[in-house]
UniProtKB/TrEMBL annotation:
It comes from the Bacteria. InterPro entries: TrmO-like_N, YaeB-like, YaeB-like_sf, YaeB_N_sf. The keyword Metal-binding does not apply. This is TsaA-like domain-containing protein. Residues 13-143 form the TsaA-like domain. It comes from Sagittula stellata (strain ATCC 700073 / DSM 11524 / E-37). Gene3D superfamilies: YaeB-like. Belongs to the tRNA methyltransferase O family. PANTHER family: TRNA (ADENINE(37)-N6)-METHYLTRANSFERASE.
Amino acid sequence: MTVAAAPADGDRLAFIGRIRTPWTDRRDCPRQGSTDGPECRLIVDDVWIPALAGLDDYATIEVLYWLDRARRDLVTQSPRGDGTVYGTFALRSPVRPNPIGTSIVRLDRIERGILTVRGLDCLDGTPLLDIKPDRALFIPKAPPKSGV
C-alpha cells in the first residue's frame, strides 16, 4: 500500500503528525522523559494510520520529533550553567543544528491513529517525524540478506 506523499526531495522532512504533551513552556518540560511520566499522545495524520499496523506488538517504541522551537546556533553549551562547556554533539540538548528529538517511550495504546505513550520530553504541538519499534525489542521481518 502506498500513499500520495510528497516526493522525496533529499533535504526536506515530512511531518507525519503532531505530539500532544502537558508542557507549553520549555522550563516545565522534563530534561529526559520517564516511562512513568504523564500520558502524552502522538496524533498521526490520517494518511499514515495504516502504517501503524503491527506496532501494538511492542511495549516500547522510538519516537522521532522536530524540536521546532529550539535554537540551532550553539556549537558548545554549558548545561549546568557552572562554566563547564561541552560540544553540542556530546549532549542530548534540544539546541542543535538539526533539532531532531528522539525518545524511547512506553506504548500504552493505539486508538484510531492516536498513540498514548509515556516517556516524552517535548513541548505540546511538537511536529512528529517518525515512529519505530524499539530497536532492543525488534525482530527483523525480512529474510536475512545473503552475503552480508
